């Protein structure tokens, strides 16, 4: 029986189709370490791998199993740049900073592909991404985006798609236009996660699943982390819990909000060769973005449904099937074989959050839906920071990320209202 994450609903198609994952032992009693990392997704494990590789004594704990958060269950799409479009960032922060943030994301793309290549991890990379418009009124913005990326950000891989090209690449005439990005693609997220954990263990990181951090504090000169399996005393710590932070650390919790997103996998679509014949991944212009792609074995992996409260929707499959049928009417009754969800960490400006939340303790997350490449790279950059190098994390630290309004008590309710309003606008 495939493993069911205790913190994210449903068994993902990834989980159901990979070989059994290695089990890493829970922490047994108290220990001292150089760097303690809380959270075993891409951020935490990349930091651990890179630190251990350079000879640093590093310990990772995860409350569940590695990848039980977002890293093992996401849509697998790299995207390009940060979540916010580069020209919007340019307007807010000026050209120089916007370009550096964009280049950081390009470095992230290269880093992940290089890491997987170097270690022979088959992440099933497929090139190509289509960003498609569901409202005619957005066409000018999309055309300008292609121009801005080529002219001001030096990114030549985008081309504008008229309606006909969009329809033939999607196998659907649901969308009005789109952008084709040949400089990015999509991967099998769980294979990356598993390969990463293996490499972190191989380089000497001490890896512990089923070990929950209960409290992090500075005592004397050390960082002390109380867990349900013993106490870790460290020189420095990284909080890499992202959307799953809960009440562990209040600064992160007030700046990074969880939004729950759900994915369904259809049966193998052997009768529908017209659906995404080029194998690209797709994201659309809705506020509640729909994102989909074909798996290597020919299923449609379709994400779209979101939830802003802790309750799980009653029937993820029906909801996903309804969304699929709006785009692909011929799939109105398609069988959904797997349905699952997870929490995406977003920030107010949709830019990553990186802050020293107490002396010696850094928290990184809030990639706002672009975390597949960014979280891996930020984990690596954290390791560089510990090793005394100047890193692009300075760019993130300099961002003014405001806390969500409403404080710990009311912010979920306020966010629920705001996001529900934007979601409603998708339908107008
Ligand atoms: C359904 C879904 C679809 C997505 N699709 C895409 C996509 O297509 N493209 C993209 O770029 N991004 C996507 N994302 C976002 C992306 O997956 C994340 O940004 C990325 O995986 C974040 O990695 P992370 O290591 O920072 O956090 P996570 O992988 O979430 O890891 C956090 C870990 O912290 C652990 N933890 C929490 N609290 C504690 C504690 N107290 N003690 C110990 N451990 C603790 C959790 O168990 C968890 O394993 C998606 C996310 C979801 C949920």
UniProtKB/TrEMBL annotation:
Tree of life domain: Bacteria
InterPro entries reported for this sequence: FAD-dep_OxRdtase, FAD/NAD-bd_sf
The protein's Enzyme Commission number: 1.-.-.-
FAD dependent oxidoreductase domain segment(s): 35-385
GO molecular function: oxidoreductase activity
Keywords: Oxidoreductase
Protein name, UniProt field: FAD-binding oxidoreductase
Source organism of the structure: Sinorhizobium chiapasense
